[in-house]
C-alpha cells in the first residue's frame, strides 16, 4: 500500500502554517473552469474539466465577501492552532516516552468551538472539502463537520477505559491487523495500537448493541492519524449515530444489505451492460462493494485518496460512497467487460486501487458526475 | 489466460476471526507468510491450479470474514462450494468451540456433499496450545471431516490441506458419489474437459490414494 498521509503533528512535529493562497488552491488541485466541481451529468464537459489547468490566482478573487471573511477567520484560527500544536507536540512526545496514561486534552477543540456553525457551512460552499481539506486542518474540520466538539460523552472517556468490555478479546485480535503497514500502528507496543484499542473498547461500552464490528477499526484508525484519542472517540460516536454507520455495523448488518441493494440498482440504471456482464459471471455486488461501505474505501484505496473521500463523507454522508463506487466501475467498464470472474477479481485487487494515485482529483470529479437521486434511493 | 485444467472446484475458507484463514490462503497461493495484512472485510478471492492424482485441478477459493455478524454477508458464497477448510486456532478454545456452528452452516448452505477438512492452525505456537490434537481428531471423526494441524507461518501442512480436500472430491467424482454436472456441485470441467473420467475407471484407481481421515 502506498504511504499514507501520516500526521505531521504526531510523526515529525512539523509546524503548522497555512497561508491564504494555500487555502484557495491546495497543492495539485485542479479546479473546474466554472469554479465549482462539475455536478452536471453532461459527459461532454467532463474531459475538459479533468484536464483543466491548476487554479490560477484569479480564483481567490472570485470569492465572495463572506468567503473572504471566512478565510481571514481561518487564518486567525490557524495562528491559534499553531500555538496549540506546539503544546500538543510536547504532549504526544511525552506520551510516547513515558507510555503512561493516554488521556489527552487538547485545547484546540476549545478554540474551535468559537467558530460558528455557519462558518463551516460556508466552508462547504467554497468547495474546499470536495477539493480536499488541507491536511493540518483535518482534525478540526472533521470535528466541526460532525458537530463533535462539545460532547458530554467525552467526559466519560477516561472512565470507560477503566472498565472492561465483553468485546475486548475480539478487538485485540484485530488491532494488529488494522493498518499493519502504517508507521503509527506498527509494532505491538506502538502508541497507535494502544489508542486504537482504547477507542474501540470505549465505543463497545457505550453501544452494547453494536459492541465491536470488524471494519470499524479502519475508520477509527484514520481518525487517530489526525487527532488525539478522546477527540477521535467523539467523532466516531457521531459518525455511528448520525451517518448511518451504526446501522451498517449492527449485528444483523441489514443496512449493508440495503446499501448493496441500492448500489445494484444504481449499477443497473447507469451501467446496464456491465451489470449484465457481472450477472453472467456471477460476480456479485457484495463481493467488491461490502468493504467499500464498511470501511468507506479505506481498505480498498490508498490512504491519500481514501482520506479525500472521507473528507467528503464527513460533509455529505454515505452518498459519496455510492458516487465513487459507480465512478470506479464506469472508469473500468471497458476492461471489466472483457474479463471473466477471476480476471475481474484480479482487476479489483491489483489494478483499480492504484489507478488514481497520480491524480487524486480525477476520481472525485468523476464521482460528482455520477447521477444520484437521493429521493429514488430512499424507496 | 492460457491455463488449462481438468476440473475447477469451488472452495471456502471459514472459521472464527483471527484463526488465520487469510494467511492460510496466502501461504497456499504465494508460498509465504503474510504478517502485515488487514483483517478481512466481507470476502476475498484467490485461485491456484494444483495437480492431484494426475489431474490438474483449479481451486477457486473464497476467503471469508470471521466475525459472527458477517455470516449474513458470507453465506451467499457457500452455495455451490465443493470443498471447505474449516479453520480454528489451536491456541484458542473459543475458536474450537465455535466449530459446530460453522459446520452446521456449511452443511446447510453449501452443496450437500461438501468435503470439509478441519484445520487446527497456528501449529507453530505449540507452547500456547489450548486444544489437543487428540480431541480435535475425535471431533473430526465424529463429524466425518478430514483433519490436519497447519501452520500458515511455517507453511507446514498448508498445501496438504488443500490437496487432500481436492483429492477426496476427485475420489468422489471417480466413484460416482459426486456428479459434477449436478447444479450447485461446485465442480466444473475445465477446458481439457476430461469427461472420460466418468467412463470406466482405470486400473490405478485414484481411490487407492484414500486420504488419511
Automatic annotation (TrEMBL), chain A:
Gene3D superfamilies associated with the record: putative rabgap domain of human tbc1 domain family member 14 like domains, Ypt/Rab-GAP domain of gyp1p, domain 1, Ypt/Rab-GAP domain of gyp1p, domain 3
- What stretches pass through the bilayer? 287-306
Q: Which parts of the sequence are annotated with region: Disordered?
A: 1-64, 81-108
Record keyword Membrane present: yes
Q: Per UniProt, which keywords does this protein have?
A: Coiled coil, Membrane, Phosphoprotein, Transmembrane, Transmembrane helix
Biased region (Low complexity) positions are 40-60, 88-108
Keyword Transmembrane helix on entry: yes
* Full protein name: Rab-GAP TBC domain-containing protein
Species source reads: Danionella cerebrum
Q: What is the lineage of its organism?
A: Eukaryota, Metazoa, Chordata, Craniata, Vertebrata
UniProtKB/TrEMBL annotation, chain B:
Its membrane topology is listed as: Lipid-anchor
Q: Can you tell which superkingdom this protein's organism belongs to?
A: Eukaryota
Q: Which PROSITE patterns match?
A: RAB, RAS
Catalysed reactions, semicolon-separated: GTP + H2O = GDP + phosphate + H(+)
Kindly give the Pfam families that the UniProt entry links to this protein. Answer: Ras (PF00071)
Record keyword GTP-binding present: yes
Which UniProt keyword terms apply here? Endosome, GTP-binding, Hydrolase, Lipoprotein, Magnesium, Membrane, Metal-binding, Methylation, Nucleotide-binding, Prenylation, Protein transport, Transport
The entry's family comment says: Belongs to the small GTPase superfamily. Rab family.
The name on file for this protein is: Ras-related protein Rab-4
Which species is this UniProt entry from? Answer: Danionella cerebrum
